[in-house]
Amino acid sequence: MEPQVTTQTPVDAQPDEIVAEDLIEEVSIDGMCGVY
Amino acid sequence: MDTLLGESWTLSPSVALRPEPFGALAYHFGNRKLTFLKRPELVAVVRALGSSPDVGAALATAGIPAAQYPAYCAALRGLAAADMIRPLAPAEAVA
Amino acid sequence: MTIAPERPTLPATATLIQQFELGLDAPICLTWELTYACNLECAHCLSSSGRRDPRELSTQQCEAVIDELQRMQVFYVNIGGGEPTIRPDFWHLVEYAVDHQVGVKFSTNGARITPERARFLAGTGYVDVQISLDGATAEVNDYVRGPGSFDMAITALANLRDAGFTDAKISVVCTRHNIGQLDDFKALADEYGATLRLTRLRPSGRGADVWDELHPLPEQQRVLYDWLMAHGDGVLTGDSFFHLAAFGESLPGLNLCGAGRVVCLIDPIGDVYACPFAIHDEFKAGNLLSDGGFQAVWQQSPLFAELRSPQTGGACSSCTFYDSCRGGCMAAKFFTGLPLDGPDPECVQGYGESLLAGKRSVPASSQDHSKAGPTRNQPVMLTLGKRPPAKDCAESPLAGFTP
User: Fold this and answer.
1) Alpha-carbon distance C181 to nearest alpha carbon in chain A (angstroms)
2) Whether residue B49 has pLDDT greater than 90
3) Neighbouring-strand partners of residue C195
4) In whole angstroms, what is the distance from residue B42 CA to residue B55 CA?
5) In CA terms, which of C178, C228, C246, C264 is 20 to 30 Å from A33?
6) How far is Cα A29 from Cα A36, in angstroms, rounded to an integer?
């Protein structure tokens, strides 16, 4: 029987399924509680 | 391929980029928009923009896997929409 | 220089809120009360202002604070008081901050916004102006802020508009008496080319004395929430209504208590508090003169370390809405005598109401900078049902208090 050859992704690779929302988030400078 | 990858961009001059443990905060003193860069890798890309020939080179410099290019390009477009980053005129671009 | 290395590293999937709850190396923005002196005597003043404290920071000390804020890359500072513009060095300090990459917004009752000052402001970048107004009519406004205060604020707005200053802010504290004027406030803002800002009344400072009469009724909170959801585009809130998130959808903003994590207060004598609505020894983090400067206090204060440690919900953790409201406002609970690990006094699910009706002990104020006696600016509200003042010369915060 032929040996199966499998390739593995490196264990420390980031998951491919990221979207822009994982990277940036915009908030108003007025959007935090505790300022006049 | 996303056309953004071949373009030259840079951080806008009125933006302060402040490192944080989780990435960075970017504040635009002109339009007062505040954006959180939620990954240190994105911060590395943004810092590399102005000295890279194009966005693709900046992504490579920061070690971003190709499979994530679409997400990073979308994030850069988000930053561009807030004027956090600006295109460089051809004469300003790094050769 | 970074904060203590005990800050845990969160996984990359952690939300922004989870990151912020652990604190930052520097505030994103902060409130700085420049003086306790004020020309007005608003009934609900959160800093109990009126009289200048003789220990006020000098001009040089203020400049040193700004230098530190610049080094820490604090993006902007909200300067208030009392009435900050009655400090003789106010205009100099504004310019100094702007020249040192610290953006400025200042909160004012409009006292010194003359046409000339308005022109100066219109020509200065990186400065924002916030005019305080608590009624869309003089009748409603002046009841809490004093006779003539409505006219003074409107005059300031007109001067700013006429000088070409764009996008001033009108900042409103929402009360039982003005919830019905939300559309009128918006119209005022539009008329003067300003942005409307609606904020929450906290039972802080003199606000503790008038909170029972002034705070919105439960049904009014719903009206406010619905109005913000329907018309809130372009209306700011300073994230002060995050306790209303339990009605359903969150309003825009971080929806978390920023005290000691992303914001704090520097008071006129250099005391640092977790939040301008929490000026009390319980929430004092230190003093920037005696504790090695602002950065040292922000990064090393034991109070702030405690606020930045993971918080359990306490009595609220079993409520399905805890994730959205986070138990509400720490200052609101403290100054109504409610436990900090329980519901907000204005919990929209009603859990605060029963506690308010029950036995509770409202804390004595740590300090009071109110004017010693009534002046012609005294609002009508203060003449009615005011708790008898302790002797004017009393220094103890417990003067007049009998357990």
Assistant:
1) 21
2) yes
3) C169
4) 12
5) C178
6) 12
How far apart are alpha carbons C155 and C161 in whole angstroms? Answer: 10
ipTM of the shown complex? 0.89
- Judged by phi (left if over 0) then psi (alpha if -120 to 50, else beta), residue C314 lies in left
Instruction: Look at C73 and B16 and tell me if their CB atoms are within 8 Å.
Output: yes
Confidence of residue C403 (pLDDT cuts 50, 70, 90): low
Summary mean pLDDT of chain C: 92
What is the three-class DSSP state of C332? helix
At position C159, the amino acid (one-letter code) is N
Residue C366 pLDDT: 85
How buried is B51 (Cβ within 10 angstroms: 0-12 exposed, 13-18 middle, 19+ buried)? exposed
Neighbours of C217 (CB within 10 A): 11
As given in the structure block, the two tokens for residue C208 are 């503790």
Q: Is A27 on the interface with B (CB under 8 A)?
A: yes
Q: How far is A10 from chain C (nearest CA, A)?
A: 18
CB pairs under 8 A between B and C: 34
